[in-house]
Amino acid sequence: MVNKSHKDLFKTIHRSQHVQRNWDLDAEMPQEDVDIILESVTQCPSKQNASFYKVHVLQDRDIIEKLHLLTEGFGIGDEKQTITTNSQTLAHLVLVFEAANTEENGARIVNNYEYLRYDYDHDQVLNEVMRDREMAVGVAAGYANLTASLMGYGTGCCACFNPTGVAELLGLEDSAVLIMGIGVPGKLPRRVHHKDHDIVFPSKKKQPIDVIVH
């Protein structure tokens, strides 16, 4: 028998699939909630607990608005004739994941290969680092997503942005990997663009994931 707490978790998991595109910016996001979300993205698992990324925390509206303008590129319509920005990046809290410690993590992988007496080359090590970085950022974003959803916030991840513009705006040393918005959902349906209410983002049904029990 599934109890109420399990049902609540079930609903939260399903709700966390959906991207929030508009926000109630008159509502406040307590700093205690922000701190918990940041704890989730900095203390989640990563391979060998290595730091594959940095997290830039944006709450200044001026910076957030400028960042949002760098996300134009989402095509809407059968022929994708309408190009718009990703308005999930207008949330109360915006996280920008920056790649980090490539050389350090590369050396860590090389040392492991030497210890195991594997052959390796530069491209192989770089591919390993990139794989582990993407996995680490994905886990961190997943932790933030579920943590925020459990507290009643909406979320949205954005990988469609101008990397050069983002790097210049935030003074990044390396490249941005992912942008994530977290905040209080707006009163409009979640798929309506925060800036242009005539734009409604498409919705896609979750594709089934095969579960094979051994």
Short note summarizing the structure:
This protein is α+β, with helices and mostly antiparallel strands and 214 residues long.
If you had to describe this structure to a student in words, what would you say it looks like?
The protein is an alpha+beta fold. It has a domain of 139 residues: NADH Oxidase (3-Layer(aba) Sandwich). 40% of the residues lie in helices and 15% in strands. The strands form two sheets. The protein has a four-stranded antiparallel β-sheet, sandwiched between helices. The mean pLDDT is 90.
The percent range for helix content is: 25-40%
CATH superfamily of the domain at 45-183: NADH Oxidase
Strand order of the largest sheet: 1-4-6-5
> Which CATH C-level class of the domain at 45-183 is it?
Alpha Beta
Low-pLDDT runs of 5+ residues are none
Our Rg estimate from Cα atoms comes to 19 Å
Termini, distance in Å?
A: 24 Å
Helix/strand order, N-terminal first: HHEHEEEHHEHE
Tell me the number of helical segments per DSSP (H or I, 4 or more residues long). Answer: 6
Per CATH, the architecture of the domain at 45-183 is: 3-Layer(aba) Sandwich
Helix/strand-derived category reads alpha+beta
Mean pLDDT: 90
Percent of residues in β-strands: 5-15%
